[in-house]
Amino acid sequence: MTAAPQPALARRLTLGGAIAIGLASMIGAGVFAAFAPAAAAAGDWLLLGLAIAAFVAFANASSTGQLAARYPESGGAYRYGRIRLGEWPGFLAGWGFVVGKTASCAAMALTAADYLVPTEWERPVAVASVVVLAGVNLLGITRTARAATVIVTVTLAVLALVIVAGLTLIGQRGGAVGFGMTTPGFEAGGAYGVLQSAGLLFFAFAGYARVATLGEEVREPARTIPRAIAISLGIVVAVYAAIGTTLLATLGAPALATSDAPLADVAASTGWNWAEPVVQVGAAIAALGALLALIAGIGRTSLAMARDRELPRPLAAVHPRSHVPYVAEISVAVAIIVLVLVADLRGAIGFSSFGVLVYYLVANLAAFTQPREDRRIPRALSVAGAIGCGVLVATLPLASILGGLAVFAIGAVVRLIARAARRRTGGHGGTDDREDTAGRPGAAPPE
Q1: CB–CB of 423/415 below 8 Å?
Q2: What is the pTM of this model?
C-alpha cells in the first residue's frame, strides 16, 4: 500500500528573511572566540588568514548558490550531491552535516548558557534555550526569520560597540596601534600558521549555505537564494574584517592570542566597564542565533534524507498547517537536549569541522558537474573551493580528522545495514538520483 503523500513545505521565505537567517547562521559565538586562537597561529598575519578563509567561503557560497538556483529543495549539499554525483556522496554530505551539526548545537547551547549564568545553571538554561528555539521553528519559517532578524540586529549592535570602543582606545593612545607589537617568546607559525588561522576563521563563516537547506521554502528561489547567500556573506566579511582589524590595532597579536574574551577586553581597555557584560550577553545571543538557524537547517536536511529513506521515514512528516518538518525538528531538539545533559561537547567537536568541510567539498564537486546552461560561475571557482576545503582539512588537528573519519565510517555501516535489511524485506534499496530533468517525487521542476 502506498503511503499518503505528505504536505509540501510552503514557499514563504522572502529575500530579507533569507538574509537574516544567513547572517544568524554565520555571526554566532565564533566571532567572539575564533580570533584568539587564529592570532595564536598567524600572529600579525591574522588578516591574511581571514582573507583566505573569506575566499574559500566565497567559492563555496558561489557553488552553493548556483546549485540552489537549479535545485531549490530542502537538503542543501545532501540533495545536490545525490542528484549530481550519486547516492553515496550525497549521503556522506548529509550524514556529516546532521551528526556533526547536532553536536555543534549542543556546544552552542552550552556556550550561550556559559555566557549568561553560573556553572551550576548551565545545563538547565541550555536545555531551556533548545526548547524555546525549537518551538519558534515549529511555528513556521517566517517566525524563524523574524526571530533571526531580532537576534542579528542585537548582535551587530554589540559588534559595532566593540569597534567604537576600539576607535576610542586608539584615540586615547594618540593614534598608536597594536600592529607589530611583540612579546618575548611569542612566535606565530609562519605559512602553516596562516593556513591554520584560515581554518579556524572559516568556521566563523560557515553557515552561509544555511538558506540553501531551506530552499524548498524560499520564494522565487532561483533569484532569491543566490542573492541571499551573496549579500549575507558580503556583510559578514565586512564585519569580520572590521573586528579583526580592531582587535589587532588595540590589543596586538600577542595579547589577542592569549585572551579568553578578546572583544570584551577591547571594551574593558577603554574603561567602559559597563560594556563588558553587554559584550558577554551579545556573545550569548549570537550563539542562540546560530543555534536557531542550525536547528532549522538540520531539520530540513533530515527531511530530505528521510524522503529518500536514508533516515527513518517518519522524519519526512510535514505539518499541514505550519508546513514545517515537525517530526524532524522535534527529533533534532531531543537529540540536542540529550547531548547537553550527558556531555560537554564544547572542546570535543572537531569532527564537526571535518564534516562541514566534506559537506562543502561535495557541493563544489556537484557544482563543477553542472552543464553550461545551469552555470552562473566559472568552473575554476568551484575547483578553488574544493581545493580550499582540502587544504583546510589538512590543517585540522589529527584528533579532529580521526574523529571525522570515524563518524563517516559509522554512517556508512549504518547505511549498508539499512539497505540490506530493506532488500531482505522486499523494500526499496535506493535509487540513483543523478538526472538532468525533474522526474522523481520532490524534484525541482526545470527552470
Answers
A1: no
A2: 0.87
